[in-house]
């Protein structure tokens, strides 16, 4: 009888222990990770945009002739010649007076050639030449020009014996030959970039890297 009582007590304890783990609804309590709910939202599409065109490099038209070749080897070559000498460019009121230094653009004359139309926009003109020199000289002209005029003029130069190259937004045309009278080299160089032109005319003088120097003076 004692053995049976012990078995009954043991069975009762097991039953009570099992009931303690179940909720009132009779189902066992279980712990399971929550199922991930798939997201039904989507990020709004980013509209495609066209990147803005790069702006032209900043430039400034120089206003002083001497500063164009300051601290360069050219100060001891053509830079030692008279600059804008009245014996070369004349004086105001004379028929063949040529404005030099920092000047204001002027309207092109009626019937002007493409070159004359472009040079009428000159804002800086520098002429290095001794009044006693027969041909030796160098001149630089810089200004802003109507792109339609400069484009038409540049397109006409190969037919006149110029060699033209393009690099980025710049186009350069050059022509060198030998003067038949004095048997010296004469040359003309024209660069157009961002609506600005640089024109160099020279005779009996070598000027390696001069154009690079002038470009660095304009596009800083």
UniProtKB/TrEMBL annotation:
<feature type="region of interest" description="Disordered">
    <location>
        <begin position="22"/>
        <end position="57"/>
    </location>
</feature>
<protein>
    <recommendedName>
        <fullName>DUF3558 domain-containing protein</fullName>
    </recommendedName>
</protein>
<feature type="signal peptide">
    <location>
        <begin position="1"/>
        <end position="22"/>
    </location>
</feature>
<keyword id="KW-0732">Signal</keyword>
<feature type="compositionally biased region" description="Low complexity">
    <location>
        <begin position="28"/>
        <end position="48"/>
    </location>
</feature>
């Amino acid at each position: 009888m004692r053995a049976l009582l012990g078995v009954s007590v043991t069975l009762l304890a097991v039953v009570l222990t099992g009931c303690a783990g179940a909720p009132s609804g009779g189902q066992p309590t279980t712990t399971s990770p929550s199922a991930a709910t798939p997201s039904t939202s989507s990020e709004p599409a980013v509209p495609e945009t066209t990147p803005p065109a790069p702006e032209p490099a900043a430039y400034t038209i120089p206003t002083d002739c001497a500063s164009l070749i300051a601290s360069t080897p050219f100060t001891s070559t053509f830079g030692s010649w008279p600059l804008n000498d009245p014996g070369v460019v004349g004086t105001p009121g004379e028929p063949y007076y040529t404005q030099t230094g920092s000047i204001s653009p002027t309207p092109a004359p009626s019937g002007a050639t493409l070159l004359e139309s472009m040079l009428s926009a000159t804002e800086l003109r520098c002429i290095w030449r001794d009044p006693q020199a027969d041909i030796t000289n160098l001149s630089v002209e810089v200004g802003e020009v109507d792109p339609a005029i400069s484009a038409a003029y540049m397109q006409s130069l190969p037919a006149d014996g110029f060699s033209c190259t393009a690099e980025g937004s710049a186009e350069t045309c050059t022509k060198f030959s030998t003067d038949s009278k004095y048997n010296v080299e004469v040359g003309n160089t024209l660069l157009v970039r961002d609506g600005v032109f640089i024109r160099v005319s020279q005779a009996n003088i070598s000027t390696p890297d001069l154009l690079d120097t002038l470009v660095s003076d304009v596009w800083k």
